[in-house]
Amino acid sequence: MFDAGTRCMVVVGAQWGDEGKGKLVDVLGEHADLVVRYQGGANAGHTVVIGSDHYVLHQIPSGILHPGASCIIGNGVVLDAEQLFVELDDLTARGIRLDGRLFISDRAHLVLPLHKQLDQASEKRQNIGTTGRGIGPCYEDKVGRRGLRVGNLRNLDEAAQILAARVDRANHQLHELNSDQRASFEEHVELVRRLAPRLLSLAADTGLLVHRAVKDRKRVLLEGAQGALLDVDHGTYPFVTSSNTTAGGATVGAGIGPTAIDGVLGVVKAYTTRVGNGPLPTEAEPALSERLRTVGGEFGATTGRPRRCGWFDASVVRYAARVNGLTGLAVTKLDVLDHFDTIPVGTGYKLDGGECAEMPADVEQLARVRPVYEELKGWNADTGGARKVDELPRQARAYLDRIQELSGVPIRYVSVGTRRDQIIELQ
Ligand code: GDP
Ligand code: IMO
Ligand code: MG
Fold this sequence. Notes:
Layout: E1 8-13, H1 21-29, E2 34-37, E3 46-50, E4 53-57, E5 70-73, E6 78-79, H2 81-93, E7 102-105, E8 109-110, H3 113-126, H4 135-143, H5 156-176, H6 185-202, E9 203-204, H7 206-215, E10 220-223, H8 248-254, E11 263-269, E12 272-274, H9 286-296, E13 308-310, E14 312-313, H10 314-324, E15 328-332, E16 342-351, E17 354-356, H11 363-368, E18 370-377, H12 394-407, E19 411-415, E20 423-425
Parallel strand pairs: 1-10, 1-11, 2-5, 2-10, 5-7, 6-8, 7-9, 11-15, 14-16, 15-19
Antiparallel strand pairs: 3-4, 12-13, 16-17, 16-18, 19-20
Helix pairs in contact: 3-4, 3-5, 5-6
6-O-phosphoryl inosine monophosphate binds next to α4.
């Protein structure tokens, strides 16, 4: 992946999240100097499996399991500091050395208990199926210019003033949302005072760190969370998350310019899943959805919710390729399709009897499109042991060739199992 001309790579989800970004970042992280999370927060759940060890990273970059990689939580992340420390302590307890390897942007906004209360209360009205991690309300405060940033903790009196205004406003909102919950100013102040020393010991001008790494030609990975169709601008609005999950978000959220980026790897499953509400055009009929879910272990890494499952949707991936500027694809979970006789692939959409060439902006239209399917032959053989593309069954290679052709992006990696070594790199 990294070579003389490719030093700074973005890894993004190119469907609805949970594509296997954690696995890919871990695989690529072996050769990385720096791995940066740049948006989202504890709504993400990125799984890395090393032998029999299973790690789910929510806010810490998935490069942390390589001792040679430094990790950054960038300014674009909304940080749940209490959860971060749970995650850090868990890694330490499992023998991962973290000293001097993790830096947090002093410009990152803090997710507070009141944001989670507001998320849960708004869900009752909006029914988006959020993760309940306070993501939307925290980004609302950020854009509304009233948020609390990591750097504010350097002056706790100033932080308390911001908190007083925030708690007051949140309690008005909770009242309007008919919630019987209320945020407590004292609890918020106590929490922030308790977290401040440890958080500040990790705080830095991380944009500068990333800038220097890029300038020194270090190998940098920018790790996206969620997926293109959950992007607040380009996704299936309003059934989206509240950040720019697409590659443009990487520059803003890491604090560097677009000219620093050499390539964008889009991670896609060999089929499609979605967790939460909103349209999923190629969702399979219940029995097949259930089969994909069981074989693929499709349960949310953050909330444990069952994921909705369906077939590869080339319209989604073509669109994700466009809005991300994808330069390569990583196709994951090919092994989940090992024992199907035929595998449908969505090649395009029809809407009201006509062709629907591009992703509709209107979620109501997307809910009405009818996917056009092509039936590809299954291979009825295990792929988990393949380490080279020519070790894959002929029909599996034909399947990959077809989804590459339909997506218009070259496949660079194929993942055939959860483990680190279960990866094929294509030339
Ligand atoms: P992320 O959010 O994009 O990092 O993805 P998640 O970790 O939420 O979900 C992906 C799931 O698929 C995790 O349980 C991974 O261990 C698993 N996974 C990743 N790649 C493969 C693969 O090639 N085959 C199989 N069977 N599982 C995989
Ligand atoms: P990773 O990084 C899959 C979904 C939620 C919901 C919507 C909004 O593991 O791929 P939010 O809590 O962000 O306000 O919820 O976005 N969602 C995800 N779905 N993977 C994720 O992260 C997700 N993060 C949020 O289910 O539909
Ligand atoms: Mg996930």
